[in-house]
């Protein structure tokens, strides 16, 4: 089935592979700075230069209540990342959350439930694009994971160069797709296998493990677990270590390591979109999503 993807103009401009964002829509000097410091704010993505670390930006996700990755939120994240990537002031980003207790609840289930195929296709393309942008970023990307991080939230974390997780038993992380009756796509799986190895990934994916911090550290899905009030300072120290390496050498090495994984998706992006649309449109999958969404509602009592 050939799929015609009707993209809205903003999304279309953004989601071409490695498109340049037209105009300087969001880049502007920080209010009152007058010193050339740049701040790329948007309603859901707060980006500020780290006052304590030259060349480092802190990107806070602010899409309450749970930082679910809706199409609009993905688009704003993409714009901000593109701006940072193009601004030579910055060499590193710390990605964190502004929603207490939640890093990201993952993909927005409402973008996949009860939607028409064209919408699902547009949405999936944005998901692909965010992954590619973070995974292949020339910047050092550190995840300061200050909340629970299931599924798409875990993928975002796994795409960083280094992950610092707050030590709170509620802050579980993992690819739990099977618990929803859906499947982690091959590129989610590839990134997990690259991170924790084949056998651990095999178990974690099939059983939909959400690892609490101590287990997450043990299996290697995160690099460090620290007290909650030390997540930012630890991320900053780790960043300093990564920034001590000359950019060109680090970037080329990152590309060498990550490109084969990214290429697997780049070589079949359209087919991957079609697979997703076919899969998500199945009655059985829509029913599973319905049941899961109802469970989330009932949990509230
Ligand atoms: C064969 C070819 C295959 C090709 C590929 C096909 C596959 C499909 C792959 C799709 C991949 C998907 C990856 C994903 O990311 S799926 C999303 C997974 N996410 C989750 O399971 C998390 C669900 N959420 C929670 O567990 C909890 O909300 C929480 C994050 C632990 C926070 O709990 P709490 O603070 O108690 O908040 P609430 O539960 O009350 O939630 C508040 C509010 O937010 C809504 N919500 C929560 N998560 C999502 C979400 N992911 N998307 C949309 N909306 C979400 C929740 O329903 C509440 O809404 P209301 O206030 O309106 O009730």
Overall description:
- The chain is an alpha/beta fold.
- It has eleven helices and eleven strands.
- It has helices at residues 9-15, 71-86, 117-135, 152-158, 186-196, 198-207, 213-219, 231-243, 247-266, 269-281, 283-299, and strands spanning 28-29, 38-39, 45-49, 56-61, 92-97, 101-102, 140-145, 147-150, 162-166, 173-174, 224-226.
- A six-stranded mixed sheet has the order 3-4-5-7-9-11, sandwiched between helices.
- Helix 5 (186-196) crosses helix 6 (198-207).
- The termini are far apart.
- Mean pLDDT is 89; it is low at 1-37.
- The structure holds ligand LLH4SW3U.
- The site of ligand LLH4SW3U has 28 residues, from strand 8, helix 10 and helix 11.
- It comes from Ursus maritimus.
- Pathway: Lipid metabolism; fatty acid beta-oxidation.
- One of its GO terms (cellular component) is mitochondrial matrix.
